[in-house]
Amino acid sequence: MARCSVATGIGCFLTGVGIGAVVALLVAPKTGKETRRLIAKKAEEGKDYVTSKGREIREQAEEFVEKGKELVSKEKERLAEVFETGKEAARSRLSIV
Question: Tens of pLDDT along 68-78?
Fold first, then answer.
């Protein structure tokens, strides 16, 4: 069985939704002018949705980057403390010998 990524699945789903919407519009009992207005309106709504989701994803990525930086900084400090403790232990060991 083939494995698909989540992004591929979402892309296929959105493509299916788009095709379904186009077919529904083509068989809808509206005039061409009304249909074009509806298509333009839905396209604008789609653009706004994608823009807002992109903004949300960017903000989440920025938060993850900040958390990662904080984690690296804490681990760096911890490693420096461990290194310093090791140096002190080595010095005391050498002074005993």
Answer: 999 999 999 99
